[in-house]
Amino acid sequence: MAKLTLFSGTANLLLADAVASTLGTALGECSIERFPDDEIRVTVHMDIQGHDVYLVQPTCPPVAAHFLELMFLADACQRAGASRLTAVIPYYGYARQDRRERQGEAVAARVIADALCTRFNRVIAVDLHSPAIEGFFDIPVVHLSAVPLLADSLRSFLFSDQVVTAPDLGAVKVAQKYADLLGLPVAYAHKVRLSGRKTEVHQIIGDVRARSPIVVDDMISTGGTMISTIEELLKRGCSPRLTLVASHGLFVENALERLSAYPVERVLVTDSVPPPSAPASPSVQIISLKNLLAEAIRRLHVS
Question: Residue 254's domain spans which residues?
Fold first, then answer.
């Protein structure tokens, strides 16, 4: 059997190292340099001839730089003789651009998938924004979900009056998964996106009055979708005791600071991207993907 080797880009070294430790190994030796003109140089510093190689790199902000690191690292490993390459992408950047909203737009998620197919034999991803993205690939995709992990963490502070709430129609299936696992009712919001930063919620479908909402989505980026949903829930008389849950916590543009203006008791996200560096209100609880990813890598390696 080929030797298993893991490398990591700079996007989330803590997670990559945790996955390696769970597998009983260490990260492979490589260097990623940035020149003054912003060019990136990637070098592999070990013999990987014939190895089964896994590259751990979420394509989180800065998305373009982290994506290029991943592609350059793949090329370096190919040239060093790796027998098989798997991209382990806990967070898949550009996933929201999976279709054209208007004439003349690029389908960026497809472009990224096409590029990955030129260097990798397989991809491991976690909670893609749209399951349809799997169809963009000409190589196998192992699509993992963090929902069971996050639902297990929610059990420690469940209340009888809670309701799982989807912030838009796209999250209804995810909300139903949480509701089934937790034995809770479901409500959902009807959202209209006005721009990349602004959304409006027009109505809430389901009984939320005097209930404590658990608002679930695949990601929290600027927090705009969550805030619009929270405001509408409060108008509908929900209990001022909210929990937010997402697989990916990007928290860009002071999202946590903006959320702190609302009665959010806690936010649960995974470590698919680096967690917020500074303490903030509301309380953020990080659930690690290390076991989920390590088990997927272990199964693929022996298959």
Answer: 147-271
pTM for the predicted model, two decimal places: 0.94
Residue 62 shares a structural domain with residue 137? yes
Please check whether residue 282 lies inside any domain of the structure: no
Tens digit of pLDDT for each residue in 173-228? 999 999 999 999 999 987 665 555 555 666 789 999 999 999 999 999 999 999 99
3-state secondary structure 259-271: HCCCCEEEEEEEC
Catalytic residue positions, numbered: 191
On whether both 91 and 159 belong to a single domain, the answer is no
Handedness of CA 67, 68, 69, 71 (dihedral sign): positive
Each residue of 171-189: b (16+ CB within 10 Å) or e?
Answer: bbebbebbbebbebebbbb
Q: How far apart are CA 116 and CA 136, in angstroms?
A: 10
* 206 occurs within a structural domain: yes
Same domain? 158 vs 240:
yes
Rounded to an integer, what distance in angstroms lies between the CA atom of residue 224 and that of residue 241?
A: 19
Token pair belonging to 37 = 């003109």
